[in-house]
Amino acid sequence: MSSLSKLPPPKAILFDIGGVCVISPFQAILDYERAHNIPTGYINHAIQLGPHDTGAWQLIERGDVVLNDAWFASFKAQLSNPDHWSRYYLRSSSSSSSTGGGSVPPVPDIDAKKLFWNMMRTSRAPDPFMYPALKKLGASGRFALGALSNTVAYPDGIVDEEGNLFEKGLVHDQDEGNPHRGDSRDIKDCFDVFVSSAHVGVRKPDPKAYELAVRELDRVARGKGLGGVTAEEVLFLDDIGINLKWAKKSGLRTIKVNLGETKDAVRQLEEQTGLQLLPDNGRAKL
């Protein structure tokens, strides 16, 4: 039993989207690295290093720039920083079974546009464990539900790397046995509160993002007759460690959702909420 399970149930539950409620865009990154023989984790490393104020990924998630060809060029430059590449390559090679310490190969030639759209397409699929759990939590009426997501704002008529109009809605399995096939394609409809970084101008792990989310959850909870909500009464799920670190610093409870392990995270949600969120056989219902 986790230490969190000893606490009273949360009044509000706050979800990241990518890698929690929908299939992780990190899976698309991993697939790209494997296909192009890039050391696993390098792309995420380059994205996280930013820098915070001027990194292409950081700027697009704050809504400070427009998603266009100029941004894709900037994103490619972020992924091609020779210092970041050199340090990561030497570190990864020295920690592997190889002897390491040799010369550093050229920075990988990453197709930033293809990578980005692969990430966006991957994250249109609902997670087979977390999405049904989210629907059950909403149906229970016992919690204020919110999303706090680092997002990208899509210009009208945006096309992908192949020139096809990009549609950002969820893609539900249309099999007759899928109870969610008729659900809304807009993930926002699952929540009482949806805080999108690109639309509010602040992204995780900035403490202001958590403050805003808690404030909105408090407002909604009062309107639903659940009483006020403090940070300590909010349970936050995310797949990125630094986001969880600063959520904890802001007073929130947290659950780490590891890549490919959403089922385990749902089990932790069951402990916290007292609700059965997985089917009896533990299999996904999508």
From TrEMBL:
This is HAD-like protein. SUPFAM superfamilies: HAD-like. PANTHER family: HAD FAMILY PHOSPHATASE, HYDROLASE, PUTATIVE (AFU_ORTHOLOGUE AFUA_1G12880)-RELATED. InterPro entries: ACAD10-like, HAD-like_sf, HAD_sf, PGP-like_dom2.
